[in-house]
Amino acid sequence: METDKSSGVFSFDSIKHLYFLEVNGEKKPLTGVTTILSVIAKPALIQWSANQTIEYVKEHLTSLDDLDAVLKEAKVAHRKKKESAGDVGTAVHKAIANWITTNEWIVPEMPMANTMIDNFKKWVAEHSVVFTGSEKSVYSEEYWYAGTYDFTATIDGKNYLADIKTSSGIYGREFFAQCAAYRLAHEEMNGQQNFHGSVIVRLGKDGSFEEKYSYDYKTDREIFLAALTLYRGLQTFNTK
What pTM was estimated for this model as a whole? Predict the structure, then answer.
């Protein structure tokens, strides 16, 4: 049985997507895992943003008379594309979480999402996946952060903490550092857990599918804690 060993009261504001811990009557915000990991450079994302700007100009510029207006919109083209993609990703995450907890599929009316969900169903069947938890919010009072992992499961007879991604690829170890952060907080709250490793299940919006595993929790955890140190240091920088 899981038992919360913290001395405080943990809460999550789903609207603002903020985590809080109340200790001795004082409620303070916890830093999100993804916020901490944002200090890691993402060169592929920078190039993608530039590509979206170029594509927008190529598609919409028909006359130099429209140049200023087109360039104005081109500046935010990457943000709008990301928001649109985020809507699909959110819908897929919600549908999968609902299925894990209720065994009912509420599939969003998005053809793209249907394909992504079908790929997840196929993966579950092929690997005899047995879910042991879903959408669990965890936090670390020691390191003062929080986050929500997608699910835990037994996969081919081994226990994993898992995260679903709808990105175009699995780049480097950052996703596994994210899983390690969740695992570290989970174990602080509930004691040592018998996880064999972490798994990233990528459901591409183009219909692609990818799964990757990490069994090196020590390195993944160290990457996260290094990012945490960098994030905290940058937050406390004072020019005086």
Answer: 0.81
